[in-house]
Amino acid sequence: MFAFLALASLIVGASAKVHDVQVGGDDGKFVFVPEALSGAIGDQVVFHFNPKNHSVVQSAFDNPCGPKEGGARSEFFPVAANSSVDSRPTFTVTIDNLDPQWFYCAQAARTPASHCGADDGAPNSFANFKKAALAIGASLSADAAAASATPTQDAQPSLTGANGAAVTLPPVVDATLVTVPITMDSTSTWTTTYTSFLNSPAATPVAAEGAVHTVVVGGTGPKLLFDPDHILANPRDQVVFQFQVKNHSVVQSAFSSPCSPLNANNASAPQALRSGFRPVGANDTDFPTWTVTVNDTAPLWFYCEQTAHCGSGMIFAINAVDNTTRNFAAFKALAQQLNGTGTSASAAPSGSAAGDAGAASTIRPTGAAGVVLALVAIAASLL
Q1: 3-state secondary structure the chain
Q2: In a domain, 246, yes or no
Q3: pLDDT tens track of the chain, all 383 residues?
Q4: Is residue 329 in a domain?
């Protein structure tokens, strides 16, 4: 049957329950109803066989239409169309562990007529609903890939440095848009499209909820830096910027224009993520934070837009590819070459709260802010 059954076990309940599952549907459809359920250890799953000739066989996630060694297995139960419901056979499985359990119908196994590999024939089925959703996702990914091919700030071959000298940009690093299935465990799988560079991080997160990276912005001294100043982060990871002494901000930029907001001169392109200025007193102990959630492996570039800070080297990167000409060291050197005379390309008065306009963040009551990087925004910030 196309929609073979999945059981997800929960913790032991106070009393066992009975879950009824219909094997085969109306008009001879090849389905289990329901297709999936959650039960506790000790619960019973009773399979009720409907007209046609079906079976229930336990399989494995990586081999859905083949029997699992030592797994539960019913015989084939031929059921006449005119049989009474009360006379139809059943098969019972007792949940005895917390692992997901998978089942299928073995009728015509390994043949073109296999029930396990057959569609249920319903145009409004869940399977077709999921296919339609995935098709929309693929279309959006293709649009993002096309947008990334549009010339942006990073297409500039050379610039004029702060001292008037010409600054030649390093060559653009080749990138590939990749669509792959991601599997965290037997119950957590999805398809993702991401930008892959040579030696860029894997697209599989370290955990379903991702990891948390804390980056300190500024500090006593004063410190005009991010600590650490560059990190590697997987999709779903969160980068928490903690603002310390002085008045700093975090603004997304491009490699070719380190000290200017991303696409500042192109209103039709995805705009920069911006934290806004976060003033922190020398004696403050409650430090504000701003959070970015990563959903790609492409390099992301940031800077502090406070006057002269970026030109002093106060820049930050996520997933900069070290063994290329556009690595973090090159990004920092470019920021200093282009803006090292004491004026930032996006300078604002030191007491200003400028930079909040158009911010892509949501302020939480705790003072933190959350941002999810949209695929189209990341695609526009490619090297």
Answers
A1: CCECEEEEEECCCCCCCEEEEEECCHHHCCEEECCEEEEECCCEEEEEECCEEECCEEEECCECCCCCCCCCECCCEEECCCCCHHHCCEEEEECCCCCCEEEECCCCCCCCCCCCCCCCCCCCCHHHHHHHHHHHHHHHHHHHHHHHCCCCHHHCCEEECCCCCEEECCCCCCCEEEEEEEEEECCEEEEEEEEECCCCCCCCCCCCCCCEEEEEECCCCCCCCEECCEECCCCCCEEEEEECCEEECCEEEECCECCCCCCCCCCCCCCCCECCCEEECCCCCCCCEEEEECCCCCCEEEECCCCCCHHHCCEEEECCCCCCCCCHHHHHHHHHHHHCCCCCCCCCCCCCCCCCCCCCCEECCCCCEEEECCHHHHHCCCC
A2: yes
A3: 544 566 555 544 457 899 999 999 877 788 899 988 888 899 999 999 999 999 999 998 888 889 999 999 999 999 998 999 999 999 999 999 888 899 999 998 878 788 887 665 566 666 666 666 677 767 776 666 655 544 444 444 556 555 556 677 777 777 777 676 777 666 667 776 766 666 666 666 767 778 999 999 998 888 899 999 999 998 889 999 999 999 999 999 999 899 999 998 888 888 999 999 999 999 999 999 999 998 888 899 999 999 999 999 999 999 998 888 889 999 999 999 888 754 333 333 343 333 333 333 322 333 333 343 433 333 333 33
A4: yes
CB of 326 within 8 A of CB of 245? no
As for how many domains the chain has, the answer is 2
Determine the structural domain holding residue 246 and report its residue range.
135-379
R_g of the chain computed on alpha carbons: 28
Read off the CATH number of the domain in which 87 is found. 2.60.40.420
Which of 82, 104, 126 is the last residue in one of the domains?
Answer: 104
Domain boundary among 86, 104, 122: 104
